[in-house]
Amino acid sequence: MAKLYFRYGAMGCGKTMQLLQVAFNYEERGHQVCVIKPNTDTKHGEHIYTRIGPERKTDFCFDKTTNLYEKITKEYQNVSCVLVDEAQFLTKKQVDELMKVTIDLDIPVMCYGLRLNFKREDGGFEGATRLLQIAHEITEIKTICECGKKATLNARFLNGQLVTTGPDILIDDGKTKIEYRAICPACYEKYQKGEK
Ligand SMILES: [Zn+2]
Q: What's the pTM?
């Protein structure tokens, strides 16, 4: 039986790299895959990029109104796997549609994304919350904080200062330096108290 997978990790842990590796493995063995991402991430258009080089064009980008079950049923019935980048931006309904893809079409769906938003709040990412609730398999892709411990949080820094409030999606105005860093809870606290 095909499964719905959620592979989560903090920013920069290599999620997209792993997604591209899985796509490559399928294709090398003569199987077709369907690689998709939400159009929330507009800076790279229809492409998926990684920090260390590899990239590819997506099969399609979707918005919050796209019915993923219908789209995949109509156009991608013959693929061996569906791979979703930035899966935290899925809606709850879309995660349920992807579950239906695994059940009705017997196609495995692998979702890669963040578990938590920069505010550390439950429900910060609807897609991540739903995937954590219903995915058949959940795995963490680990990464390291600047102090050497395991990083589990995504912190937003504006001009080098940690911020814990603000909109979920921040538009770059060209004036403020926006940065996201994967850090451990201890370092997060230190930044919050101004000890770092
Ligand atoms: Zn740390």
A: 0.92
